[in-house]
Structures are given as C-alpha cells and as structure tokens.
Design a protein that fits this description.
alpha/beta, Dihydrodipicolinate Reductase, domain 2, 2 domains, seven-stranded mixed β-sheet, globular
Length: 307
C-alpha cells in the first residue's frame, strides 16, 4: 500500500488504539475522535470538526457498540460518503435508521486469518456434514491492565455480553457455510464473574450447506481456546486459532499469523477496494439479527427460524 490516506478512528479504547497503531504502521495519516482529553497529535472532540478539517478517505468506528448507530448518523450528517469500517458487532440492537454509504463494512477481521482462508479454499467442492466450534477466554485476563468489571463486556447498556464480544465465530461460520436457517440456543450468566451480561452461550443450528453446526462461546476458559472441527465427505479438518495450525486428517500445517496481521489485511482490503474477504454492512446486519434470535431462543427455550 504505497498511497497515504487520511484516516479517522472514532473511539480510543483498547480496540481504537489498536486501529490507530496499525494504520500508522501502514504509513497512513491517522486522527482520533474521543470525548476524553488525549495526548495524541491529531485528536478531536467531535466528529463534525474532525471530518471538516481532516477531509478523510477512511473512517473506523471503534467506540462502544451501543453508540455505533448515533455515530453513523453523525457521520451521515456531514455529507461524508467514502470508506467506513464499523467494529463488530455492527449494532447492539436493530437499527432505527438506514445507511447508504458507498463503502461500509463490518470489522470481522478473522475472515483474514490464514486458517479460515485455507479452509475456505479446500472445502469449495466438498460436502460439509458437521461443524463444531469453540471459543473461550477468561474475561478478567482478557484486557491486561484494565478492570474487567468496568469494561463494556460487563455492561448490558453498553452492548456487552459474550455472544456480541465473540461474534467473530458467527460471522466466519456464515462466511464459510452460509446463513442460518433454524437454531436453538442456551445462554446466561452462570459464573461468579462480577458482570451483568451473559458469560456463556451455546448454539446448535443448520444452514443451507450444513445440517449440523454447534458453537460454544464463554468468558470462563482459563486455558484460552479457540478452535473449529469440520467433517466433510472426504476429510476432517481441525483449525486451532491459538496454535495457528490446520490439521487435515493426520497432516498438520503450521501458519504464521501475528496478533495484528488480520487487522492489517482488513484495512488494506478496504483501502484497496478488495472486497473478497470483507464483511459487508448487510453481513453485519445478519449477525445482529442472529444474535437477537439466539437470545430469543434462549429466553423462550424454543427453536427459531430465519424467516
């Protein structure tokens, strides 16, 4: 990526700081919008001023999920109509407003993980029979140096909860295996964590391509594990996202993937108009709906359909 673009990152929490650092390392000009007083060379207090003075090519919305809709409204009012990336999940609830920006994407960067991309290529002509996916990490150790009880993960109002925090799994499963058709979910707060959100969710569902997908996600795993097992008519695959390995039957392949690599690839794809692996705005809305339907299934203890 040779050209330098003018970028604005809205929100300067842990994920906002990461986006700033990565875009800066990609030789981009990066300004920040935050309500806090920051020791940052290009910092603005409000969106309108930042867009007016920076005239950006690219905006990253990285504030709390519950503020995403009002943030997009504020951007829309300025007349901006260039590239936007909204951190996942897209919204904490169904949006009241519609947005027709020319280029708007959802920040599901795990699509750029080399394990996902390798599996995507290998199963193109195979019949997938079953998928088992697991992700778990102990919330108090998730963000070193911060109080987990004060994080958005712990707050319902701010759009937290494990099914939203770890919705990467919902997105990459949709990317690989298509939209869900029927699902059953169980979720709740089962641990002694000092939070008001769900710390565990399990889903079983079907897609047009796969008759059985199971997914478990939690804030409880002291080991920290993230893996997927896929059985097709010709092979079995195990993806270990912690060890960066793809096992195909008895053969193990090791991949290089540092912590920021998927974010770098995602930003480069947006800036270069390469949409092959980007999660669209529509994709993000589908995940918002899936989360809400999973919560309904859990509350009512019923199977739900994607009508």
């Amino acid at each position: 990526m040779k050209a330098q673009h003018r970028c604005i990152v809205i929100g300067f929490g842990s994920i906002g700081q990461r986006h700033c650092s990565i875009l800066t390392n990609l030789n981009q000009r990066v300004a920040v919008v935050s309500r806090r007083k920051l020791n940052y060379p290009l910092a603005y207090y409000d969106i309108e001023t930042a867009i007016k003075l920076e005239d950006p090519h690219y905006i990253v919305v990285a504030n709390e999920t519950s503020k995403h809709e009002e943030t997009l409204i504020a951007i829309k009012k300025t007349g901006y109509n260039n590239k936007i990336l909204v951190e996942k999940p897209l919204f904490s609830d169904d949006p009241v407003n519609s947005f027709n920006f020319s280029y708007i994407y959802t920040g599901y960067n795990l699509r750029f993980n080399p394990l996902i991309q390798a599996l995507h290529k290998k199963i193109q002509k195979q019949k997938v029979i079953s998928v088992q996916t697991y992700v778990g990490q102990y919330l108090p150790t998730w963000r070193p140096g911060t109080d987990y009880t004060q994080s958005y993960s712990a707050s319902v109002e701010r759009g937290g909860g494990v099914i939203r925090d770890l919705s990467h799994e919902l997105d990459y499963l949709q990317f690989l295996f298509g939209e869900w058709r029927q699902l059953f979910a169980m979720g709740g707060q089962y641990s002694d964590l000092n939070i008001e959100t769900d710390d565990h969710f399990s889903l079983v569902y079907q897609t047009d391509k796969v008759p059985m997908i199971s997914l478990q996600m939690n804030y409880l795993d002291h080991i920290t594990q993230r893996f997927m097992i896929v059985n097709t008519n010709v092979a079995s695959y195990k993806l270990d996202f912690i060890e960066n390995t793809l096992k195909i039957n008895d053969k193990v392949m090791k991949f290089e993937n540092n912590r920021n690599n998927t974010y770098e690839l995602q930003h480069s794809a947006v800036l270069n108009h390469d949409e092959r692996y980007l999660s669209s705005y529509e994709d993000g809305l589908k995940i918002v709906k899936m989360i809400k339907m999973a919560e309904r299934s859990s509350k009512e203890k019923v199977w739900v359909s994607n009508d």
